[in-house]
Amino acid sequence: MGLVVQKYGGSSVADAEGIKRVAKRIVEAKKNGHQVVVVVSAMGDTTDELIDLAEQVSPMPAGREFDMLLTAGERISMALLAMAIKNLGHEAQSFTGSQAGVITDSVHNKARIIDVTPGRIRTALDEGNIAIVAGFQGVSQDKKDITTLGRGGSDTTAVALAAALDAEVCEIYTDVDGVFTADPRVVPKAKKIDWIAFEDMLELAASGSKVLLHRCVEYARRYNIPIHVRSSFSGLQGTWVSSEPKQGVQQVEQAIISGVAHDTSEAKITVVGVPDKPGEAAVIFRTISDAQVNIDMIVQNVSAASTGLTDISFTLPKAEGRKAIDALEKNKDGIGFESLRYDDQIGKISLVGAGMKTNPGVTADFFTALSDAGVNIELISTSEIRISVVTRADDVNEAVRAVHTAFGLDSDSDEAVVYGGTGR
């Protein structure tokens, strides 16, 4: 039996009973002959509560101290889980991200992993222990400060450790039974996917699917680490995410459409009255990049012949909207635009599937389904295996259900079960 990395989300360890249930599952894997490394998130809503507390104390907390605060949640989880495992008669040692050798850059609140040096984890495993690691955190390479990887960063911690330890599989335990063709909270008849390729999962994650973080899937593909997404509340087989179908997982032919994802966490900024000449877009997006803001979709209108001006619209996370607006306003003279428009009442719907490359009717069917549902489209973006549109936020749920049904993705069997309620 080989080494297994298991990751448990906040809903799985939300209370003492949940922690004890998770401990039993971990011990079972150990009894089956595996070496086990476990990555844990903070209990339940602990991280949100810590963020609220910080905002009550300081409206703009310093990044270093904010990271120091937020990492406390995972440290609580790892210690309690180690205690629960020891109570079942097995040895467990808990480690912070720093102690586990998770080395990051120095960008606080959304650091990226540079390297993993899991010497202490290997030693713990060689001594017959179960290793418990606090997810979501690391230590900066230069200043040795505690850093956090951004929301959902425990998934990335788990895959990075799996790669560094040459694990057989990285098991991501959540509160649903796997990856579904749509969010079960919005589409109760969504189907569970038995296997999905890294490429399709990357597009779903980038388009708003909350089961796996985009960076986690990206890391897994780079190091070819199979991911098994499953529920910590049941013993059912979950969804395998890998380069090739897992042996024994039924996969006759790759489906045309893998699923429908949606995202209501983005906003849209329109830069109005931009001179239509070479270099203007470069100045705009360099300004945004320098402000450390990530951009998703971009659309530039055709310039008006009479004015020689155009509008450029792009989407970005709502949480970074204020930062982007401030950066653009500061460079208004350098860019030469007339005004800015900000809209945070938008939603994105994405259709994902490798099969659409060879099926020309997919695009027409997608837009027909949206039209029949009375959904107006504001922006369109495509890749080889994805079509994304931006609509009004109020239309998102209806649009997702309409598209899901139009492509025959609705399940005829029992509705999908959401055990914990948060999807993580």
Automatic annotation (TrEMBL):
EC number(s) from the headed UniProt entry: 2.7.2.4
Domain ACT, residue spans: 269-345, 351-424
Pathway: Amino-acid biosynthesis; L-threonine biosynthesis; L-threonine from L-aspartate: step 1/5; Amino-acid biosynthesis; L-lysine biosynthesis via DAP pathway; (S)-tetrahydrodipicolinate from L-aspartate: step 1/4; Amino-acid biosynthesis; L-methionine biosynthesis via de novo pathway; L-homoserine from L-aspartate: step 1/3
PROSITE patterns registered for this protein in UniProt: ACT, ASPARTOKINASE
Record carries keyword Amino-acid biosynthesis: yes
Annotated keywords: Amino-acid biosynthesis, ATP-binding, Diaminopimelate biosynthesis, Kinase, Lysine biosynthesis, Nucleotide-binding, Transferase
Enzyme class: transferase
Listed transmembrane segments: none
Catalytic activity, reaction form: L-aspartate + ATP = 4-phospho-L-aspartate + ADP
GO MF term set: aspartate kinase activity
SUPFAM superfamilies the record matches: ACT-like, Carbamate kinase-like
Keyword Nucleotide-binding: yes
InterPro entries for this protein: AceGlu_kinase-like_sf, ACT-like_dom_sf, ACT_Aspartokinase, ACT_dom, AKii-LysC-BS, Asp/Glu/Uridylate_kinase, Asp_kin_monofn, Asp_kinase
Signal peptide positions on this chain: none
Family label: Belongs to the aspartokinase family.
Function: Catalyzes the phosphorylation of the beta-carboxyl group of aspartic acid with ATP to yield 4-phospho-L-aspartate, which is involved in the branched biosynthetic pathway leading to the biosynthesis of amino acids lysine, threonine, isoleucine and methionine.
Protein name per its UniProtKB record: Aspartokinase
The species this protein was found in: Streptomyces hokutonensis
Native organism taxonomy: Bacteria, Bacillati, Actinomycetota, Actinomycetes, Kitasatosporales
